[in-house]
Amino acid sequence: MPSRTRNGKFQYLVKTYYAAAELPTSRADALQAGFSIFLGKPCHSGHTGIRYAQNGQCTECLNHTERQLQVALKVAPPEVVALWDECAEKAHPGNSYKARITKRYLARHWMRANAELIRTVLAAPKPVYTAGPEDFDNLEGAYREDA
Ligand SMILES: [Zn+2]
User: What is the mean pLDDT of residues 85-111?
Assistant: First the structure.
């Protein structure tokens, strides 16, 4: 498998299972033949060129922005996240797909402005669970902060 990320697995599956079916090389062909993806031009980030037929966007880039949003949702204060939701809903009322994309971009801009905060949060040690199944009744001291 070329990459350990979830999208790496997706790309691997695409290459393995769609190779036999021969991916269409244009968006119009893909839509006509009922494919959800097609093999277009490599994107500006140098990805393989597997794109969604629905909107022509690079599958890897879209997955990357979604992963960024997941990180931002963990780090950002709740009032900021609420603001993103409000802005995205205002920009695309009743269209949750487009609202989600707007939310991703808002999150990305926020992350750029708060890079230092994100670095410190991500660098902080995660609690490590050390207790076994027999200790479920006694979870005192089950989390270690130093590991
Ligand atoms: Zn890309």
Answer: 92
